[in-house]
Design brief:
The complex is a heterodimer of chains A (158) and B (410). Chain A has 158 residues and is α+β, with helices and mostly antiparallel strands. Chain A has helices at residues 5-23, 45-48, 62-74; strands at residues 34-44, 57-59, 82-96, 99-111, 117-130, 137-145, 149-151. Chain B folds into two domains: 43-158, Rieske [2Fe-2S] iron-sulphur domain (Rieske Iron-sulfur Protein), CATH 2.102.10; 173-409, Naphthalene 1,2-dioxygenase Alpha Subunit, Chain A, domain 1 (Alpha-Beta Complex), CATH 3.90.380. Helices cover 20% and strands 30% of the residues of chain B. Classes of the chains: A alpha+beta (158), B alpha+beta (410).
Chain lengths: 158, 410
């Protein structure tokens, strides 16, 4: 659907901020882009068309996202890399009150310590974004991985 | 006397030394496909819960060979190589589905859901146009079938007519471990896949190695989420091909302490801000909250809290395998239990809070073991001469894996 340029710009700006927070290693700021009861899921595409839609990463509160990040920082061992999230094809699919259903394509590359870059994941986001009186935030972000065979492991959120 | 495996020499045969070439050699990989994956033992391919209706199928692998696991119209389960008897093309191109027939797109050779050839286009010759001779036998040109055996709805297949019965291959307490998880009707919740650049045996070792568990995987110790009694159990078949191991715990929700986790690992400097991750009721009354059953060669059956899964190790090359998780619950789970399982999926799989490290550990080894192929991994943790069943933390099950492997590869 067509929304005003102001609204579209706010939505795109939130998507870009999302990518930058992750790519700049400001992981602690990642949960702040969601509302308190926000939902974040990574669902392999082969699970998307069945019930239930098993996610490989599933947070249904901002607190769970905070826990995920503190685990990455303090407990988990994963491949050392720089991620790069590229978000495109941002399209508003619907609107209800101040909430917008948004679809976008994502690509995530990983660059290792020797400067070699590999395509890590391609897929789409299906988001619910709220533009209220406060900062725009995600109520929901579902990353559906076309790359549902995960190269090694998934640590930093898609 | 030194023993060799496809040109790789073992300095000792007790499993305490593993030459790095065993993880990198193409010759070894080829021999494994022949002796192990086409040898006299059973390979996990799927769960019956994935093919419940007549005509249901899913593609799987035995070693690196693509197969179709299919439920025929009469309800029987069949496993056949996914390769057309005519020209060798892939017949079934979909990962799963339901079909009355499996038809090769190249020349339309058509097979039943039990793998028999049912029709061939232009079978009878007309003047100047094709046809097969009158003694062409449909029966002789079916898809290559494997023997199938099912234990408690877990489907295994073998190429080798001389393989013993599945029950004789597994033995107690492996059968008990399967009984424990599969005595109720299973419902598949979905799949997870990882493609790991490492040798498949590095992952098998990982699933038989309790030494690394609390040292590599920091989540439970850091968040004080897992209250282990430090009491483990260990079981195996007589040939020690397989390993069943695990740990007792008590209430999931009780916080860990230095006594329950062990002084070396207890950090608990954090707690979960949203403890709903650990919500859930035990599925069993035996206080086992971690059970890892590693069945030779390539499947792991796991219960970690309320997470239930098979992990199918699918070798692709000496330095490449797929890890295919089938995550399940029970048909009679209520909504709350299913919700707990879906949330606890955060713990396992490629993004698992307590499992993501395993893929990294495998790749760290594969990346470093270049050049000095005769150098060896050192596996002496947990006294070698001790009773293996007493020490549930040592590397004994890994050593046993290598002894069995040497025998079957000889």
């Amino acid at each position: 659907m067509i929304v005003s340029p102001e609204i579209y710009n706010e939505i795109v700006a939130l998507e870009y901020r999302y990518a930058r927070v992750l790519d700049d290693d400001r992981l602690e700021d990642w949960p702040k882009l969601f509302v308190e009861r926000g939902v974040y899921k990574v669902i392999p595409r082969e699970n998307w068309n069945r019930e239930p839609k098993l996610a490989i990463l599933f947070c249904d509160s901002r607190a769970m996202m905070v826990d995920r990040i503190s685990s990455l920082r303090t407990a988990n061992i994963y491949n050392i890399h720089y991620p790069r999230h590229v978000i495109a094809n941002v399209e508003v699919l619907g609107a209800r009150g101040g909430d917008y259903d948004v679809a976008a394509a994502y690509t995530v590359y990983q660059t290792d310590q020797e400067g070699q870059t590999k395509l890590f994941s391609v897929g789409q986001y299906l988001d619910v974004i709220t533009l209220g009186e406060n900062e725009p935030r995600f109520r929901e972000k579902i990353a559906i991985c076309d790359t549902f065979n995960i190269p090694n492991l998934l640590a930093i959120p898609l | 006397m030194s023993q060799q495996t496809a040109g790789v020499a073992w300095p000792v045969t007790d499993g305490t030394r593993v030459p790095f070439e065993i993880y990198t050699s193409q010759d070894v990989f080829e021999r494994e496909q022949e002796r192990i994956f086409r040898g006299p033992l059973w390979n996990y391919v799927a769960l019956e819960a994935e093919i419940t209706e007549p005509g249901d199928f899913k593609t799987s692998f035995v070693g690196d060979t693509p197969v179709v696991v299919s439920r025929a119209q009469d309800g029987g389960v069949h496993v056949f190589v996914n390769r057309c008897a005519h020209r060798g093309a892939t017949v079934q191109r979909h990962a799963s589905g339901n079909t009355k027939e499996h038809r090769c797109v190249y020349h339309q050779w058509c097979y039943s859901s039990s793998g028999d050839l049912t029709s061939v286009p232009y079978r009878r010759a007309t003047t100047g146009f094709g046809g097969y001779s009158p003694d062409f036998e449909m029966k002789a040109h079916g898809l290559r079938k494997l023997r199938v055996a099912i234990y408690k709805s877990v489907i295994f297949a073998t190429f080798d007519p001389s393989a013993p019965s599945l029950e004789d291959f597994l033995e107690e307490p492996l059968l008990e471990a399967i009984d424990r998880l599969f005595s109720r009707e299973v419902k598949v919740l979905g799949h997870m896949r990882q493609r790991i650049h490492g040798n498949w045996k590095l992952y098998v070792e990982n699933t038989r190695d309790p030494y690394h568990a609390a040292l590599l995987h920091g989540f439970h110790a850091t968040f004080g989420t897992y209250r282990s009694s430090q009491r483990g159990f260990r079981g195996h078949d007589r040939a020690r091909a397989h390993s069943a191991g695990g740990k007792y715990g008590d209430d999931f929700a009780k916080p860990a302490t230095a006594e329950t986790v062990g002084d070396d690992n207890y950090i608990a400097s954090y707690s979960l801000t949203d403890p709903s991750l650990m919500a859930g009721r035990p599925d069993f009354n035996d206080n086992i909250n971690l059970a890892i059953t590693s069945i030779f060669p390539s499947v792991v059956v796991q219960q970690i809290m309320n997470t239930l899964a098979t992990r199918h190790i699918r070798p692709k090359a000496p330095d490449d395998f797929e890890l295919y998780w089938t995550y399940f619950g029970y048909a009679d789970d209520d909504a709350e239990t299913t919700a707990a399982r879906l949330k606890q999926a955060n713990l396992v799989g490629p993004a698992g809070l307590i499992s993501m490290e395993d893929g990294e550990a495998v790749e760290l080894i594969q990346r470093a073991i270049v050049r000095e192929g005769r150098d060896c991994a050192f596996l002496e943790f947990g006294l070698v001469d001790d009773d293996p069943d007493k020490d549930t933390q040592g590397e004994d099950a890994v050593r046993a894996f290598w002894r069995y492997y040497q025998g079957i590869m000889a």
